[in-house]
Specification:
Radius of gyration: 15 Å
Shape: globular
Order of helices and strands: HHHHHH
Oligomer: single chain
Number of strands: 0
């Protein structure tokens, strides 16, 4: 029961986060380090990836792959969180506190472990 509720929460989290990339694309572009090119394209692609992979968690046939790819995606997002921490209060007009930036960065390993917990599909 807890694992099923956890899975539903993950699906809602990733699908909602992906949709948010299209509602607030300027925010996501603003937190990307300048050395990463093509901010608008990568914001859109990461939004699509979060939606597709979040929905992939719904099905036993795609859950393992979706969980592993979300974990990879979260690892790839770590430089963005480090940049966000480094630029706290200065992210192109968006107010980000140092505390919020630390929470986002330190939450990454928790999110990775959480999604990997759902890799195995029970028969």
């Amino acid at each position: 029961m807890i694992k099923k509720a956890s899975l539903v929460l993950l699906v809602l989290l990733y699908v909602g986060a992906g949709i948010n990339h299209f509602i607030h694309p300027a925010f996501y572009a603003s937190i990307m380090p300048p050395y990463i090119p093509f901010h608008p394209l990568l914001v859109a692609l990461s939004g699509v990836a979060e939606i597709v992979l979040g929905l992939g968690l719904c099905f036993s046939t795609t859950r393992r792959l979706a969980a592993c790819l979300i974990a990879v995606m979260l690892i790839l997002f770590i430089p963005v969180h480090i940049f966000m921490l480094d630029q706290a209060y200065h992210v192109n007009g968006y107010r980000t506190s140092v505390r919020a930036a630390w929470v986002r960065l330190l939450l990454q390993p928790v999110l990775i472990l959480w999604v990997l917990w759902h890799r195995k599909v029970r028969p």
